[in-house]
Design brief:
Strand order of the largest sheet: 11-13-12-14-16-15-20-21-19-17-18
Distance between the termini: 16 Å
Structural class: alpha/beta
Number of strands: 21
Bound molecules: tricarbonodiimidic diamide
Radius of gyration: 27 Å
Number of helices: 28
Strand content: 15-25%
CATH architecture of the largest domain: 3-Layer(aba) Sandwich
Largest sheet: 11 strands, mixed
Number of domains: 3
Length: 731
């Protein structure tokens, strides 16, 4: 087995108390509170008696630092201090302490009162925003914080971990206040921080600033490092050029589309001047050609004219190629259970079709980031199934072989990405629908922790267990789409806020030389085909050679939790979202396998007592699974399973559709029942002949799924990414 080594660039600069080394891929620039209220005349800072000349000194150096960091491709995070208009997030300690001082002559106006730049430190006011020179570009993270520190009651820890950031270069105002507090907070969470001397300033004389910076690096680096700007600029400069991202004006002749549909690939191509119209033209030739290979991918395909029109509109809207939104011109598809305003949502079930007047939240979010909508894809009826063989719109097949199933229910999603017709796809996953088809088409299928991405505007399959899934070409792209689409939606009754108890950052960075992983016991793996078993054994060896320690776990909650999905009463929830009597009235219009499945559910005559027993069992197994993923010495970081135990031919599934389907879910069913997150990742291919026992030519893809506890997405994705990277061609 040849493993690709982690060759990511590590930069080292002179600093106090000793050299600061940072891995580029894991480093963000943090620009703190460069707001008009702190930096401009008549703002909050000046009103409190701050010396503006002193604080403005860092604007020029911070601009240089920001531009160099952008050219080098660092993640950029801006913060803004301020409060909601009713000040309910501002404690009285902050509101009145200074003004209440007996000798107060300085604090004439307090937070929320009206100054010349608007209400002081209130979100949405002119003074609250970042100064023009340092305005954030689309795609950069902006954190609104109510405190002096950046981590109190904000999503920053979650957002940094989600991007696998472990190192921070810190700048901004004021040195003595928010800059120092944020570094101390970050330090407690495990970040390596380096403050940049010239890129921070305060309202006091230099001795104050020196003392603050000294306190950060004293005692051999108690809180972090402090460096000068120039060595950092010198170190970043060649990286900007090497990445070819410094050209802000596109060349005269826009480049051709090179065929790379990955999001990062397209971002680079668009920056260099590729036209989204050129991309759309090429794509439509491919889509037309693929219709001959597989006519069942699309339920609705946008007309080429519409897409060219949308591409032209995008090009006109975003004429500055150095300030493109992250999904500018990135083509995507959606499962036809996800609403797009004005188009029918069929859920592959014509009697249920309706034309929504608003789009699903998740769709709107990717459109707002510049993505290019191509069409709505086929699925197993009512998003119920894992085979891709249960749709009145035809049976899709694996992009690897026309006789083999694509998997479902997000069948068209996975095929549209696997056949290179789009860059990513928005799918759903209840029993494994986002993972199994990804596995059968050699792409990544990521199901974040349920509730992180809004499910509003999606036709439910089993509402309390439904989850948005992202189909993508690689783990990084899946992570990018996740970060652009997540967000607490108070209109979604199953939504979860991003902020929760969080672990420190070690698990997602280069510090993590080792990790603990667990697998199902041998008896559970017996369900796999011979070749799936062989490749799963290879996966275990590969993970061990990447620093993974195989850690025994209690498999029972995963086994039992999975069984609850179809053997218990949860399957009845599939009828709960439909109008009363709908099933009986529409049975003759439904797919025969769905009718058979639902008939079996109805025939069980489950009682309310059964349902409550299942809810209690679900809670018990969820708690037991939580323990498996605990941070303690006996806990594991990730559970690794074959995405599917076997890859059936279409005719095999048609012969015995319910049983074959159920086997496919052996390692996915527990995912949403136990509130896990999971990502299916390609894990090599195998000769078709080895599975079929014949001399047939060709290969099929193998896939493994990395599962973690609720909200452990960031660490699960990072282990998955390292696994994926180990397959990359040696460079
Ligand atoms: N951003 C920041 O430092 N906020 C402050 O209130 N600073 C003061 O120095 N007062």
């Amino acid at each position: 087995m040849t493993l690709k080594k982690d060759t990511s660039t590590v930069v080292s600069i002179d600093a106090k108390p000793y050299a600061f080394s940072f891995p580029l891929k894991h480093t963000a620039l943090l620009v703190i509170d460069m707001q008009r209220d702190f930096l401009l005349a008549k703002g909050f800072g000046e009103i409190q008696g701050g010396n503006l000349a002193d604080v403005q000194a860092s604007i020029g150096p911070t601009k240089k630092l920001l531009e160099a960091s952008r050219r080098a491709g660092l993640t950029i995070v801006h913060t803004r201090e301020g409060h909601v208009p009713d000040l309910s997030d501002c404690p009285s300690s902050k509101l009145v302490r200074q003004a209440a001082a007996p000798d107060n002559t300085q604090h004439k106006l307090t937070i929320g009162e009206r100054g010349e730049l608007g209400r002081l430190l209130v979100r949405g006011e002119y003074g609250h925003d970042i100064i023009d020179e340092l305005r954030p570009l689309p795609g950069e993270v902006v954190i609104d914080k109510p405190g002096k520190g950046t981590f109190w009651n904000t999503t920053i820890l979650h957002k940094l971990k989600a991007r696998a950031i472990t190192h921070l270069i810190v700048s901004g105002v004021t040195t003595e206040c928010c800059f120092a507090t944020s570094i101390r907070e970050a330090n407690d969470r495990g970040f390596e921080c380096c403050g940049i001397e010239e890129a921070t300033s305060g309202y006091n004389d230099n001795s104050f600033k020196c003392a603050t910076l000294d306190m950060i690096h004293w005692s051999q680096g108690l809180f972090g490092f402090i460096a000068s700007l120039q060595p950092l600029l010198d170190a970043l400069e060649p990286l900007g050029n090497a990445r070819g991202s410094s050209a802000s004006t596109p060349p005269q002749t826009p480049p051709d589309f090179d065929g790379d549909l990955s999001i990062t690939g397209l971002q680079k191509a668009y920056k260099k001047g590729l036209s989204p119209v050129t991309l759309a033209e090429t794509l439509y030739s491919k889509i037309e050609a693929y219709k001959k290979v597989d006519p069942a991918v699309w339920i609705h395909l946008e007309s080429k004219e519409n897409v060219l029109e949308a591409a032209k509109a995008l090009a006109a809207k975003y004429s500055n190629r150095s300030a493109l939104p992250p999904l500018f011109g990135v083509p995507f598809s959606v499962k036809d259970s996800i609403d797009v305003a004005g188009l029918p949502t069929t859920t592959a079930c014509p009697p249920l079709a309706h034309i929504p007047s608003a789009s699903a939240v998740v769709y709107d979010k990717v459109i707002a980031e510049g993505a290019l909508f191509i069409g709505k894809t086929n699925l197993d009826q009512l998003a119920t199934g894992l085979t891709g063989c249960r749709s009145p719109y035809g049976i899709t097949h694996s992009v690897f072989n026309k006789d083999y199933i694509s998997g479902g229910s997000s069948s068209g999603n996975a095929v549209s990405v696997g056949a290179n017709l789009v860059s990513f796809s928005l799918a759903t996953d209840t029993a494994g629908s986002g993972r199994v088809p990804a596995g059968f088409n050699g792409v990544v299928g990521y199901k974040p922790t349920r509730g992180l991405i809004s499910f509003r505007g999606v036709t439910p399959a089993c509402l309390s267990l439904d989850c948005i899934a992202i189909t993508a070409k690689n783990v990084s792209d899946a992570r990018t789409v996740w970060q652009l689409t997540e967000g607490y939606d108070e209109e979604d009754s199953y939504a979860k806020p991003e902020i929760a108890y969080e672990r420190h950052v070690n698990s997602i960075g280069p510090q993590a030389r080792s990790f603990k992983f667990s697998i199902p016991p041998a008896e559970a793996l017996d369900i796999c085909s011979h070749v799936h078993r062989r490749l799963f054994n290879e996966t275990v060896k590969r993970l061990q050679s990447l620093g993974g320690t195989l850690t025994p776990i209690n498999w029972t909650p995963f086994q039992k939790g999975g069984e609850l999905l179809y053997d218990g009463t949860f399957v009845s929830e599939r009828l709960a979202s439909l109008p009363d009597g709908w099933f009986a009235k529409n049975r003759m219009h439904l797919h025969p396998v769905i009718v058979e499945l639902m008939d079996r559910v109805v025939a069980r005559n489950s009682s309310a007592i059964d349902a409550y027993r299942d809810l209690q069992a679900k809670a018990l197994y969820t708690r037991q699974a939580d323990k498996v993923f605990s941070q303690s010495a006996v806990g594991t970081d990730v559970l690794v399973v074959p995405t599917a135990p076997n890859h059936w031919r279409i005719d095999e599934v048609l012969e015995d559709p319910i049983k074959k389907n159920s086997i496919l879910g052996e390692f996915t069913h527990c995912g949403n029942v136990l509130d896990l997150c999971g990502v299916a990742v390609p894990a090599g291919t195998y000769p078709l002949a080895e599975l079929a026992g014949t001399k047939e030519e060709g290969v099929l893809p193998f896939s493994v799924t990395f599962l973690g506890g609720s909200r452990m997405d960031a660490s699960v994705l990072e282990i998955a990414r390292r696994f994926e990277e180990s397959f990359a061609p040696l460079s």
